[in-house]
């Protein structure tokens, strides 16, 4: 039997393939045209430019004060500050992601979300585990600082343990509160988007 739909599908595939070949050819010629632009540009070795530069050298005084505009320095420093802040934030974000992956927070939350077939439950596990791990680390650091620099009558192990336990509780509470706030925000945004 003759299959018309199969022929139409093959025709469409061939047509799309020929369009892609045509687009590649056009892009290749555009790229080659851009490569040829510097050849066609006027160079700095023309006679007119050389005569003008000779006149300028003769006409200039022996001492020329060339001030550097302070606004350019301000722009350069601002640009360096913004780029530096961006690099620091990216490195910090990558360190957080790698730290969470190292502790297994990301993998456990993804597996939980896939097992329960719910993005919300996976995100809740992520927030609770992330809050608990981060809280334990922060609490242990606070316990270490309290034992070292303040007059606390506790041994280092006890200070680290108490700080980690307090951080665990605070991290769980903070993770739950963060999850509830983000859930409310998602519902609010969804209502604003779907509302006529």
Mean pLDDT reading: 76
Shape: extended
Order of helices and strands: HHHHHH
Number of strands: 0
Total of helices: 6
Estimate the strand proportion: under 5%
Note the gap between the termini: 52 Å
What can be said about this structure in brief?
This protein is mainly α and 196 residues long.
Fold and architecture overview:
The mean pLDDT is 76. Helix 4 (105-116) packs antiparallel against helix 5 (119-149) and helix 5 (119-149) runs antiparallel to helix 6. 85% of the residues lie in helices and 0% in strands. The chain contains six helices and no strands. The protein has a domain at 104-194. 13% of the residues are buried. The longest helix has 39 residues, at 156-194. By secondary structure, it is mainly α.
List the helices and strands and how they pair.
Layout: H1 4-40, H2 47-59, H3 70-103, H4 105-116, H5 119-149, H6 156-194
Helix pairs in contact: 4-5, 5-6
Notable features of this structure?
196 residues; mainly alpha; 6 helices; 85% helix; extended
